[in-house]
Amino acid sequence: MNFAVEIQSLVKTYNNFKLGPLDLKVEKGMVIGLLGSNGSGKSTLLQTIMKLRNPDNGSIQVLGMDINQHEVQVKERIGFAGGGLYEAFKQLTVDGLAELVGHWYRNWDQQYYTLLTERYHINRKEKFAHCSMGTKKKVEFVLAMAHHPELLILDEPTASVDLISQQRMREDLSQFMEDGDHTIVMATHLQEEVKQLCDYICLLDNGEIKDMFEKDEIQNRWARLWLSDLPDHFQDDIRVWQIEESPTQIVTNQLVELEKELQQQQIEINQVKRLELHEILEYILQPSSNS
Ligand SMILES: Nc1ncnc2c1ncn2[C@@H]1O[C@H](COP(=O)(O)OP(=O)(O)OP(=O)(O)O)[C@@H](O)[C@H]1O
């Protein structure tokens, strides 16, 4: 299989935090959302993939090449936004930054850069240091897009960005994905972003991958059911994640199978409600009361 990112046994430690050991494979043509609470290690992971942080252990292949051995060739093909990458050059104007960044990439597209700055209402004459937080995020995004990368690595690309620009970014990212060979790995806290863009979700918890799953599949599996009654033996059923009384409700992560069984046992299902993504994530991060 063709992977855009392949990580094996990655470990990165700080004084009070350890990322990994972690294995991750990202198929080409997919959008992977990295989700997890503040401090779970999303930025550390993305920055380590980009070699902005040195891992203690492990190997990272990006677009089929070892990032350590082929850093320049690999980075030519990646668009990265996040991690305060341009703070060191903050005395430059946006146009000045673009000129600098443009020299790093053979595929730099000045016309596309200009079009994007207009689309996002960015004042190209403004010093980067003077740009608002949201504008800085938009500049990072535009610079990442303007050299037509194959892989986008984005760290909360729309955080602090106004709603209209957020929507435009999502549209631009969807368009970016229309070429089947493109891939996005993005850290996000926004449900809207996950809903509109992501194929897979990788859930990080305290530096470890807690789960990785297909977004549509998981949303079909998790539900809350209101029942007329629940026989005792369901208390120990691993498909039943949580039980509540008055009225009798259960949360399941195996809706189809459980519905079938309840019907066979002639237990009346009064209502079925699919869970929102944030509810599902909360359940996954908590141990099941039936496990
Ligand atoms: N340079 C550093 N030195 C020491 N500790 C660090 C450093 N950078 C990050 N950390 C710690 O590593 C942990 C993970 O941080 P990281 O920024 O990767 O989390 P995150 O999942 O991206 O969080 P958020 O959602 O808030 O952006 C945190 O405990 C953080 O304090």
From TrEMBL:
SMART domains: AAA. Pfam families: ABC_tran. GO terms for molecular function: ATP binding; ATP hydrolysis activity. Residues 5-231 form the ABC transporter domain. Keywords: ATP-binding, Coiled coil, Nucleotide-binding, Transport. Gene3D superfamilies: P-loop containing nucleotide triphosphate hydrolases. It comes from the Bacteria. The keyword rRNA-binding does not apply. SUPFAM superfamilies: P-loop containing nucleoside triphosphate hydrolases. The keyword Nucleotide-binding applies. Residues 248-275 form a coiled coil. PANTHER family: ABC TRANSPORTER ATP-BINDING COMPONENT, ABC TRANSPORTER ATP-BINDING PROTEIN ALBC-RELATED. This is ATP-binding cassette domain-containing protein.
